[in-house]
Every structure is written in C-alpha cells, then in structure tokens.
C-alpha cells in the first residue's frame, strides 16, 4: 500500500475525513443532523431506523434516504482526496478504499 515495498498501512484517513465532515456540518449549523446520520454513514446495525430518524429530524423518509446517500457520497469524495494526496495512483484508489474498509470492518 502507498507505494512502499513494506508498507505500514495508515488507516487514519477515515478519521480525518470524518473530522472534515463534522467541520463542514458545524459550519452549516447542522451538527445535529450529522450526529443523527452517523450510524447510517457506517451502516451500523444499531443505527436508528429511517422512519424514526426522519420524524426526529423533521424529514420525510425519502428525503432522509437522499440525505444519507449524499452524506456517503461526500464521505467517499473526501476519502478519495485524502488517499490521493498520499500519492496512491488514481487507478489504485478504489482498491485502497476496499482494503481499508475490510481491515476496519466496514
């Protein structure tokens, strides 16, 4: 990984990206929204059900699904940029993310 003959994997990228997402949402005064959606970002089995969460956030279930989709897409974009900044060739980015998420159990 990362172009080294004996690479030491750096799996802090998702944590840095998550921090960037938090900052983005805080700037928009939507930290509560991110907090509610985080379980769905990671697809955790303990995440609040869409129907319940949509009521709590004042969104329709459809709008919530779209919001989660956009959040995941934004996370992926930020993660790709973070990994690309380390020098991983563009052709290897998807493999790098897959391997990282496998190791992290996501």
Describe the model.
This protein has 106 residues and is an all-alpha fold. It has one domain. It has 5 helices and no strands. Helix 1 packs across helix 4 and helix 3 crosses helix 4. The radius of gyration is 16 Å and the shape is elongated.
What is the percentage of strand-forming residues?
A: under 5%
Total DSSP E strands? 0
Class by helix and strand content?
Answer: mainly alpha
> Taking all residues together, what is the mean pLDDT?
81
| Sequence stretches where pLDDT stays below 50 over 5 or more residues | none
Q: How helix-rich are the residues, as a percent range?
A: 55-70%
Largest sheet: none
End-to-end Cα distance: 18 Å
Order of helical and strand elements: HHHHH
Globally, the shape reads: elongated
Q: What is the alpha-carbon Rg in Å?
A: 16 Å
Number of helices: 5
Q: How many domains is the backbone divided into? A: 1
Provide a brief overview of the structure.
The protein has about 110 residues and is an all-alpha fold.
Topology:
Blueprint lengths: L12 H15 L3 H11 L8 H8 L3 H24 L8 H12 L2
């Amino acid at each position: 990984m990362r172009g080294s003959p004996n690479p030491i994997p750096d799996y802090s990228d998702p944590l840095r990206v998550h921090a960037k997402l938090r900052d983005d949402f805080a700037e928009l005064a939507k930290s509560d929204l991110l907090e509610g959606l985080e379980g769905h970002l990671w697809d955790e089995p303990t995440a609040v059900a869409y129907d319940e969460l949509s009521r709590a956030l004042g969104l329709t279930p459809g709008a919530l699904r779209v919001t989660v989709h956009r959040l995941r897409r934004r996370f992926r974009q930020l993660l790709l940029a973070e990994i690309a900044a380390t020098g991983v060739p563009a052709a290897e980015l998807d493999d790098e993310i897959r391997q990282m998420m496998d190791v992290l159990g996501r």
